[in-house]
UniProtKB/TrEMBL annotation:
Superkingdom to which the source organism belongs: Archaea
Residue ranges annotated for the Glycosyl transferase family domain, each copy included: 203-366
Signal peptide as annotated in the record: none
Sorted UniProt keywords: Transferase
CDD domains associated with the record: GT4_WlbH-like (cd03798)
Name of the protein this chain belongs to: Glycosyl transferase, group 1
Matching Pfam families: Glyco_transf_4, Glycos_transf_1
Gene Ontology MF term list: glycosyltransferase activity
Domain (Glycosyltransferase subfamily 4-like N-terminal) ranges: 66-194
Organism: Methanoculleus marisnigri (strain ATCC 35101 / DSM 1498 / JR1)
Length: 386
């Protein structure tokens, strides 16, 4: 099988499943949407722009020999008007690249319903190639419900597909609210077992220049309102009323950095909360192994892959009931759940988690099902049905 992958990036949860599939197919050509406007991030340190640059969006480390990655440049502004037009532009550019390289495919897999999914739908209609689309998050639980035009666009993509994959039951419930007749399979995201595994915590702290005598609380995510870091900082303020031996480390870049720095300063938490910026994905495992507790304070998640990466390092998780975490933290053996945007409850569960003796072996045994090797087999099974 020769596979075409249409995606918005080639890192983390779009790179990893593609490379998990590589041993099962003859070739994979990946067409990654990039916006040349974002290349300003290569010259100016603007956090809001840097993560949209092609250097950030395309991770070429360890790419299998049978995988080729093609940047697909499309000029557009981050407005609703331009985004609604993006599908046709994306299709035209991807089609031109395919013709340029003379690639032939047996199956198309698009990640995100818009605009990658639109490209897959158009190619299927034009060439008759089987088409699978994965709805990951906002493209399923938010975009189709913003207005009727968006709903029509997303329903067109989903109904044109031969099969729809989505990463959580909460996403499936959103798809079921739409007028969609295509079969849907829930296949969660996974983690790279060769990267995320238990390591010596003391050595990891030494490598990251973190204190050995503190209980370290870690969160990883873009600095965006939906990720809930403001509520975590409020929770830390409550926790230090009971204990002073903690350090909360926030890994991530984004538009809230200045706001969060101001919040930390105003609450007098400079000794208890640190913003360390965005980190390469291959470094995240070191931060996770250095911590005592991983916290996911998001207001909404379609899945929340960082929590399974933390659990793969043997760490317990405190997460919000955000739509995705309920399907991962399914037992108090592995972590604890709290309501989103509730800093008081979050603080209480952080204290409970820090005091508890966790069964690391149980966490590691449970999380094994989420390796990309296992998830890849589920995706291949979908392909085999087409």
């Amino acid at each position: 099988m020769n596979l075409a992958v249409i995606s918005h990036s080639y890192n983390n949860f779009q790179k990893d499943p593609t490379e998990a599939l590589a041993p099962h197919v003859s070739s994979v050509n990946v067409y990654v949407r990039v916006n040349p406007f974002a290349e300003i991030g290569n010259f100016l340190p603007i956090p809001q722009v840097e993560r949209f640059s092609s250097a950030y969006k395309i991770d070429r480390t360890g790419i299998p020999e049978n995988v080729q990655v093609h940047p697909t440049p499309i000029w557009y502004l981050p407005t609703d008007h331009d985004y609604k037009k993006l599908g046709e532009r994306h299709y035209s550019c991807a089609k031109s690249l395919m013709q340029k390289y003379g690639a032939e495919f047996d199956l198309i897999h698009a990640h995100f319903t818009w605009s990658a999914g639109y490209v897959g739908a158009r190619l299927k209609e034009e060439c008759g190639i089987p088409f699978v689309v994965t709805g990951h998050g906002y493209d399923v639980y938010s975009l189709p419900f913003e207005d009727n035009e968006w709903r029509e666009k997303i329903e067109y993509v989903l109904n044109t597909a031969d099969h729809v994959v989505t990463v959580s039951q909460s996403n499936l419930a959103c798809i079921q609210k739409l007028d969609v007749s295509t079969p849907v399979t829930v296949i969660p995201n996974g983690f790279r077992s060769e990267r995320f595994y238990p390591r010596d915590s003391s050595e990891c702290r030494k490598a990251l220049n973190l204190p050995q005598d503190k209980k370290i609380i870690l969160t990883v995510g873009n600095l965006e309102p939906v990720k809930g870091q403001t509520h975590l900082i409020e929770a830390v303020q409550r926790v230090i009323r009971e204990r002073k031996d903690i350090l909360c480390v926030i890994v991530g870049a984004g538009k809230l950095r200045t706001t969060l720095k101001r919040q930390i300063r105003s609450l007098g938490l400079e000794d208890y909360v640190v913003l360390v910026g965005g980190k390469p994905h291959d470094e995240i495992a070191t931060w996770m192994n250095a911590c005592d507790l991983f916290v996911l304070p998001s207001l909404r998640e379609s899945f929340g892959v960082v929590q399974i990466e933390a659990m793969a390092c043997g760490k317990p998780v405190v997460a919000t009931r955000n739509g995705g975490s309920e399907e991962v933290v399914i037992s108090k053996e592995y972590g604890l759940l709290v309501d989103p945007a509730n800093s008081e409850d979050l603080a209480e569960m952080i204290q409970v988690a820090l005091e508890r003796e966790w069964d690391r072996k149980a966490i590691l045994q449970y999380i094994e099902r989420f390796t990309w090797e296992n998830i890849g087999k589920e995706i291949v099974d979908v392909y085999s049905r087409l």
